[in-house]
Design goal:
Helix content: 40-55%
Shape: globular
Largest sheet: 5 strands, parallel
Number of strands: 10
Distance between the termini: 28 Å
Strand order of the largest sheet: 2-1-3-4-5
Number of helices: 14
Strand content: 5-15%
């Protein structure tokens, strides 16, 4: 897990060197024929990457994006009206029937289908109209790291080419160097809080919520910590009742409109006795963990999860576990 996580910048560079003309073509197509609806199709870490891509599309392009409950197609056979819609599937393996079957349904019924997938020979890759390989190489760790980061980058490239924003696309080109720098940041003080932890809340908001979701999943997978992700706007609507003295919180305060509120939330939670780990850029004096910054706040979550993965791998070992062999899990999960 640690080796693959730290190699993410290398594989992002490989992705950025390929498929540019295809993305330009897709961007032109989407601008010429705007979709009537947009849905994402994904599970697990890929669904968290889809959350990030959806936020970019909504914030930058104004299209409302929904996450498809795949059972509507795979179990209910619901008569969905998908003509002229856009379906974006994200997967490392491209093999799970509950991702492959909906893409087939959407394509057969007149939607535009896009697959962001690591295995370019997979059923998902073969079934989509537009396939954009992640170029993450073989991923041996059960816990996805480099495939998640390359999924985030692929989603950002899709949004950038759709919007046709040269500045945003130029910022994406700088990510390999930023990701390398993010692996070098020292998050070791998080271990003092997290090694004895049995539960944790992970908080983000807006563009950073996707990495809160992903971090909570990795805490469960690799360190057997009961972790839940919440938006900073929701934590006071019920989850607050769980917080008592010493309760650990990891808060991702990346740059952007939500940052000030998340920093204020961290201070309030400290006042309630919570053991807060505030991850924020170097200019935030209240931070416990430093986040690397990118060319634009919209790309900062990609650097944030890179630093988290390094810490998470060390945390698993410090808790006496093997991050490469999470119990009860396998690399490819096939559900209907």
């Amino acid at each position: 897990m640690l080796k693959e996580a730290c190699s993410s910048g290398e594989f992002v560079a490989a992705q950025l060197s390929q498929d540019r003309e295809r993305l330009v073509e897709l961007g032109q197509f989407l601008r010429a024929t705007p979709p009537s609806a947009v849905v994402t199709i994904a599970r697990g870490s890929s669904d968290h990457a889809a959350n990030y891509a959806a936020y970019l599309i909504m914030a930058r392009l104004g299209h409302i994006v929904a996450s498809l409950p795949m059972s509507l197609v795979t179990l209910n056979q619901a008569p969905l009206h998908v003509k002229n819609a856009l379906a974006i599937a994200i997967s490392q393996s491209g093999q799970s029937p509950d991702v492959v079957q909906p893409i087939g349904y959407f394509r057969e019924n007149g939607a535009t289908t896009v697959a962001l997938v690591n295995d370019a020979s997979s059923p998902l890759a073969q079934g989509a109209q537009w396939t954009l390989p992640l170029h993450a190489g073989p991923e041996l760790s059960v816990a996805a790291t480099k495939s998640f980061i390359t999924s985030l980058v692929a989603g950002a490239r899709l949004a950038g080419h759709w919007q046709n924003d040269p500045a945003f696309l130029a910022g994406i080109e700088e990510l390999p160097q930023v990701l390398h720098a993010a692996t070098q940041l020292d998050w070791s003080n998080a271990l003092d809080v997290l090694v004895p932890a049995q539960r944790i809340m992970v908080v983000g908001r807006g563009i950073s919520f996707s990495v809160a979701l992903e971090s909570a999943l990795k805490f469960k997978e690799t360190s057997v910590i009961q972790a839940e992700a919440f938006s900073g706007a929701e934590i006071k609507h019920g989850p607050m009742a769980l917080i008592d003295d010493g309760y650990p919180l990891l808060i991702f305060a990346t740059r952007g409109p939500a940052q000030a509120g998340l920093i204020a939330l961290a201070e309030e939670m400290r006042g309630r006795g919570a053991n807060v780990l505030l991850a924020a850029p170097a200019d935030v004096k209240e931070r416990n963990l430093t986040l690397a910054t990118t060319a634009t706040p919209d790309l900062d979550p990609i650097a944030a999860i890179q630093s988290f993965y390094v810490m998470a791998a060390h945390l698993s070992v410090a808790r006496g576990l093997d991050p490469d062999k999470p119990r009860h899990l396998s690399k490819v999960t096939k559900t209907n």
